Amino acid sequence: MSATLSAFSDQLADAVEHAATSVVSVHARPRLPSSGVHWRDGVVVTTDGTVRRDQDIEVTLPDGSRISAQLAGRDPGTDLAVLRIPPGRLAVAKLGDPAALRPGHLVLALGRAGDRGPRAAFGAVSATAGKWRCWKGGELDLSIQSDLTVYPGLGGGPLVSPDALVLGLNSGALSRPLATTIPVHTVERALDQILAKGYVARGWLGAAMQPVRFSAAMRTRPGIGHEGGLVILSVEPNAPAALAGLMVGDVIVALDGHPTTHPDQVLELLAGDIVGRSLSVELVRGGKSERADLLVGERPRTAR
Amino acid sequence: MSTLFHALAADRLKESVVEIRLESSVGTGFTWGFDVVVTNAHVVRGDRVEVRLPDGQMRSGRVRVADRARDLAVLDVPGLGLSAVRCRDPALLRPGEALFAIGHPLGVRHALSSGVLHGLGPLPDGYPVAAELRRRIWVQADLRLAPGNSGGPLADAQGRVIGINTMIVGGLALAVPIVEVESLVRPRAA
């Protein structure tokens, strides 16, 4: 008998049914609607790539009613867009912890298109990894890739565990061929900032740099103590780096106490909640070790 | 010992599934009743078909009905001798339920593909297919099909047929709901 399979099949259908109570259809582009998750009461999260207009946005709720929604803001860096709807209209998503996911775990992708029932896809987690900076500039706390097919209109819908918990938001735009999920913690982090100011602020130094290795002679000098660092190639006028007195040719060997050997380490530092914080900079200038204090600015919005 | 697989239900369903052979292509069909096979209309041409049984024997069949609009065909196949499939109304299924398909994708005989129910009804606006096809009622499955699966059964976890695999749109497997066959073949033979 296939009793166990039938039971599993029922469990998947239950998970779809329960999780779908917080999944909406988002009408923010021509023709094909995308999907969204009622993440907090009155707050719907979807993918930035599927929200093509800033106004005249509507969402269709699980009960079939179509209501107007306001764009609260976007974070193209992590492919998130946030909409506001009147509170109390539908269930809030039950969130799970995607950090527990391992390759082989079975997962569902959910979506909704207009006033019809939920749409489902099923697959397995293919690969997981730690922090991942997407090509669009944002950083995901966790890289979750799966063999799920994100069918047209399923983008912005949730990744759901077989026990009906939302683990993140599926994005069709962040990578191929595997489906990428924006994990719960990344959504939470971006959501707080978007609800507060409409966008996600990213740290900014205003300096271009590249890795450099010190010569053997340099490494033996007193006070250097580093193999190499990041040499500053240009400094934008009035940018945080300029205000801290950094100059072209300076070699940054540590930021905030962490050795810097690759620009990724700087970008990683700047991706967090860091705007307005002061960083201690260890640098080598003219063969001598020096220190500076740098107040992290906010990346100009035209530069994102 | 776990039974978390389709093998038992699939083994049973396979015994009702045939291959519909044309000169240059292959389709799938399944036994609906005594000496009666159901498939897609686009799988048959003319009024005669060659049918290959699961044990390799060949039978000659005649097209009784070919409804191009619904893409369904009913074949009379004397000496078929296979048992009829069990059916289930797809309207009773929920998205996420486990499904499987049996067919001959690209000529691979009696191949199984597994997946879940994606949805039931017309396709959403914006799917890359003619509006008239998009608006039909489909059993939509998240399941991999290929040419050669056409006309074959889409079944639930217990092997009950819910649809006839008909086309692939945007990667999604589309099947004609099994209930549409009933209006073509009435009364159903035991």
Explain how this protein is built.
The complex is a heterodimer of chains A (304) and B (190). Chain A has 304 residues and is α+β, with helices and mostly antiparallel strands. Chain A folds into 2 domains: 2-197, Thrombin, subunit H (Beta Barrel), CATH 2.40.10.120; 203-298, Pdz3 Domain. Chain A is built from 5 helices and 22 strands. Chain A has helices at residues 3-19, 184-197, 216-219, 240-243, 263-271; strands at residues 23-27, 34-40, 43-47, 57-60, 66-75, 80-84, 106-112, 118-129, 132-133, 139-140, 143-146, 158-160, 166-171, 179-183, 203-204, 207-213, 228-235, 251-255, 258-259, 278-285, 288-295, 297-298. In chain A, the strands form 5 sheets. A 6-stranded antiparallel barrel of chain A has the order 1-2-3-6-5-4. Chain A has a 6-stranded antiparallel beta barrel with strand order 7-8-11-14-13-12. In chain A, strands 16, 17, 18, 19, 20 and 21 form a 6-stranded antiparallel sheet that branches. Chain A is elongated, with a radius of gyration of 23 Å. The N and C termini of chain A lie far apart (57 Å). In chain A, 47% of the residues are buried. Chain B has a 6-stranded antiparallel barrel. In chain B, strands 7-8-9-12-11-10 form a 6-stranded antiparallel β-barrel. With 190 residues, chain B is mostly beta strands. In chain B, a hairpin with a 2-residue loop joins strand 2 and strand 3. Helices cover 8% and strands 41% of the residues of chain B. The mean pLDDT of chain B is 92. The A-B interface holds A 1-6, 8-10, 12-17, 20, 30-33, 108, 113-114, 116-122, 149, 151-153 and B 2-6, 8-9, 93-98, 115-121, 124-128, 140, 142, 156-159, 170-172.
Jot down its keywords:
heterodimer, A: 304 residues, Thrombin, subunit H, Pdz3 Domain, six-stranded antiparallel β-barrel, B: 190 residues, mainly beta, 3 helices, 12 strands, 41% strand
Can you describe this structure in just a few lines?
By secondary structure, chain A is an alpha+beta fold. In chain A, 16% of the residues lie in helices and 39% in strands.
